[in-house]
Amino acid sequence: MVDIELLDRRLLGIKIPEFFSRRQRTLHDHTHWKASEMREWLLHFSVPVLENLLAPEPYLHYILLVSGISTLVRDDLKKIDADYAESCLIDFCEIYPKIYDDKIAKEILSLGKKINLPTQSPHYLLLSREMRDNGVKVFCRLQFRGTVFYSKGYQDAKTRNDSACCFSHNNVTKKGIILLFLEYENQINVIIQECFSVPFNLGEDIRRQINNCTLKAYLDKTICRHIEKIEGFSENIVISAKKLLKKCVLMEIYNSESFISIPPNTSEHN
User: Which top-level group of life is the source organism from (predicted)?
Assistant: First the structure.
């Protein structure tokens, strides 16, 4: 049996970013969830929250659904990604009766389309100017290319966390926590605490209990490619604001680990 009380405690303990329009509700209220709540549960919350709560095979089976859907809704979907998503979803449907002894599962016929949105011309809009010291201006939020990025200290939020982001550093995409924005001599920089993260993977206890042959094949593949486990944080680094890429979802799971989820697209942000 799944510990619903612990599941709800984990779910409600996640501080959401501002591009989530609704605060998550308990699993007991799932029949009243809006479509946006279902989306955030599927793409971001469910895999970290359900870790070590679902039995190993149902858990990995569910991950196939998350992996397939999260791949299909990416902004930069490629043929190889579509093939991977198709494999995940077909296997999810075929294994369903074996996992749940249920003949209801049907093959997914329509998987949606890629959506391309025009990119706005690069420009900055600085907000919430807080202080000036020796010509250095310090800010807590920044609007760039249509996205408002927030620093960790922007607000004393009990339910929201808007400071996680992806950024480019030395031509490598990294993840981190925005601490402050600085402007000096018309140059805008960002102080970031970099995350040390690794691709999402199943623990050894879970892996040892996977007996289904189809599911076993996924033990050697990268699953839930948009979710990473956080292993720690580095010293603070300074980057140009032009290196900011997108906002992410930081999830510190009660009685478990911390994760960072990279939204597969920005077109569905609220």
Answer: Eukaryota
Backbone angles phi, psi at 21, to 5 degrees: -75, -25
Token pair for 235? 């010293």
- Domain of 39, in residue numbers: 4-133
Which residues are within 8 A (CB) of 221 and not within 5 positions of it... i.e. 6 or more apart?
Answer: none
Same structural domain for residues 21 and 75? yes
Cβ neighbours of residue 30 under 8 Å, at least 6 residues apart? none
Q: Which amino acid is at 239?
A: I
Tens digit of each residue's pLDDT (9 = 90 or more) over 197-256: 999 999 999 999 999 999 999 999 999 999 999 999 988 999 999 999 999 999 999 878
DSSP codes joined into one string, 185-202: TTEEEEEEEEEEEEE---
Domains identified in the chain, total number? 2
Total-model pTM: 0.81
Distance CA 148, CA 198 (A): 27
